[in-house]
């Protein structure tokens, strides 16, 4: 069709994971997670990789990855 333009769409995978940390292992787990953020953001195709700590449940951490 003449005059119509289209854009090729690249599929994106989004991952959300929830972790419930043991209180006595939380500090070590967060340190490991920070390292994972650094490493994963270097991977080709990674748009975002981030952990979020719960406000109402401080031992709950949510991972969002694109």
Number of domains: 1
Low-confidence stretches: none
Average residue pLDDT: 91
CATH class: Alpha Beta
Identify the CATH architecture: 2-Layer Sandwich
The counted number of beta strands is 3
* Number of alpha- plus pi-helical segments: 1
Percentage beta strand: 25-35%
- The helicity comes to 10-25%
**Structural class estimated from helices and strands:** alpha+beta
Terminal Cα separation, in Å? 34 Å
Walkthrough of the structure:
Strands 1-3-2 form a three-stranded antiparallel β-sheet, covered by helices on one side. A hairpin with a 6-residue loop joins strand 2 (49-53) and strand 3 (60-65). 0% of the residues are buried. It has one helix and three strands. It has 66 residues and is an alpha+beta fold. The chain has one helix at residues 26-40, and strands at 15-20, 49-53, 60-65. The protein is elongated, with a radius of gyration of 18 Å. The longest helix is centred in the middle third of the chain and has 15 residues, at 26-40. The protein has one domain: Alpha-Beta Plaits. The model has no long low-confidence stretch (mean pLDDT 91).
Itemize the secondary structure elements and their pairings.
Blueprint (H helix, E strand, L loop, with lengths): L14 E6 L5 H15 L8 E5 L6 E6 L1
Descriptors for this entry?
66 residues; alpha+beta; Alpha-Beta Plaits; 3-stranded antiparallel beta sheet; 3 strands; elongated
């Amino acid at each position: 069709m003449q005059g119509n333009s289209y854009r090729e769409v690249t599929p994106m995978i989004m991952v959300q994971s929830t972790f419930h940390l043991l209180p006595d292992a939380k500090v070590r787990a967060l340190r490991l997670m920070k390292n994972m953020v650094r490493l994963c953001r270097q991977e080709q195709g990674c748009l975002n990789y981030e952990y979020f700590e719960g406000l109402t449940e401080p031992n709950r951490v949510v991972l969002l990855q694109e």
